[in-house]
Amino acid sequence: MHLEILVEDISGKKALDILIPKLAKPQDTFRVHPYKGIGHIPPDMRDTRNASKRILLDNLPKLLKGYGRTFAAYPSNTPAAVIIVCDLDDRNFFEFLRELSGILNACSPAPVTRFCLAIEETEAWFLGDLVAVLAAYPHARREILHGYINDSICGTWELLADAVCTGGAKALEAKGYQAVGAEKSRWAANITPVMELDRNQSPSFNFFSKTVRSLTEQA
User: Fold this and answer.
1) For residue 168, which phi and psi values (nearest 5 degrees)?
2) Distance CA 31, CA 134 (A)
3) How confident is the model over 184-211, as pLDDT tens digits?
4) Are 19 and 11 in contact (CB under 8 A)?
5) Average pLDDT over the chain, rounded to whole?
6) What pLDDT sits at residue 218?
7) Residue 128 burial (CB count, 10 A)
8) Local confidence band at 54 (pLDDT 50, 70, 90 cut-offs)
9) Which residues, 6 or more positions from 60, have their beta carbon under 8 angstroms from its beta carbon?
């Protein structure tokens, strides 16, 4: 099985480059493509005129159409699939999935595609394994970590920042969005290697894990 995985930022790529080999079989192949933000689904699902900006949802109609054509030309013994990984943020879960499915249904041919939403944000997947967080950041504020409810809508990255960063989320935000992005990448690089997949308590992470395993086992 070959997997094409689309994520909304570089920190997501850092995490998935480490996680996918733990989930897939040795003979499986994959590529993780980071984008520069999640963006918005284009009106009427038209192809964006600003593809060079590399915003995930803005480009998704064009991307899925392209993968559909590419995969259709693969030999029958070369299965492939697309996995879209993005944050739910404050969107309605079912409405967002309906919109994403609408993009896929408009493709002919449609690539095998799975949508995996991190609820609320990718940092929820790190917080699903507090043992890993504490292994990476042994001086983290445990009272904050242990007060977290898995996959709750609570400002997930801010909570993790409050737990592991000097000065917390406010101090990090004051440095600007580039500093926030760089810190998120450090979390991915530090926490992901010590995560135990079957220990994770995040429902959205477990859905992602089962999705990858299911695709590779069916191939």
Assistant:
1) 70, -165
2) 29
3) 999 999 999 999 999 999 999 999 999 9
4) no
5) 93
6) 82
7) 21
8) confident
9) 6, 41, 84, 100, 103
**In this predicted structure, what is the pLDDT of residue 48?**
53
Per-residue model confidence (pLDDT) at position 146: 96
Q: Binning pLDDT at 50, 70 and 90, where does residue 52 land?
A: low
CA atoms within 13 A on the CB side of 136: 21
Q: Let me know the angle formed at the C-alpha of 11 by 10 and 15, rounded to the nearest 5 degrees.
A: 115
Class of residue 92 by CB neighbours under 10 A (exposed 0-12, middle 13-18, buried 19+): exposed
Q: Residue 80: count other Cβ atoms within 10 Å of its Cβ.
A: 18
Domain ranges for the chain: 2-121+202-218, 126-199
pTM: 0.93
CATH of domain 2-121+202-218: 3.40.50
